[in-house]
Design a protein that fits this description.
single chain, alpha/beta, Maf protein, seven-stranded mixed β-sheet, 6 helices, 7 strands
Amino acid sequence: MTDGIRPELILASASPRRIDLLRQIGLVPDRIDAADLDESPRQNETPRLCVARLARMKAEAIAARTTGSALVLAADTLVAVGRRILPKAEDRATAERCLRLLSGRRHTVLTAVCVTPSPAWAEGRHVERLVETDVTFSRLTDCQITALLDHGDWQGKAGGYALQGAAASVVRYVGGSPSAVIGLPLFETAQMLRGQSFRFLV
């Protein structure tokens, strides 16, 4: 970075989970600027293409309206069973449908991460990563599903569950990045920022 000047780091998300994950590796964004976009999948769009597109759109939208020197960090997470993209659960009925679908089977959590420089930061470059994590639920009883729903931490979560919440008690297997399932793959994110000479905890 020129003369030790450090660009501002903007997180294009108001997710408390992503903020906490960044703090875990000693990184506090200079600013939170959440992108308000339509996150609906396009017709015939695969889960991988959808999640990558959404992360890219978020990063580019915030970068375009940033006047100073900055790097914008954006991410998007979705849950897929094959080519089927599960919704973010905004109500109990949706969460229950997701949990019954995931019961006793393996699914994929995809998290796309995008780092985009603002127009004023000429030294930065656009980079993207897609992280796929396999997760397997145990076979859920009706009582377990009711308990998970009553707990309430499914609200707003892709696939109707939170790995860092009550659902951890019914997850048999995680193959890949647990932090990616929560919302931000920390190893890959750190590598992307280090690649742009962005220094932090380790």
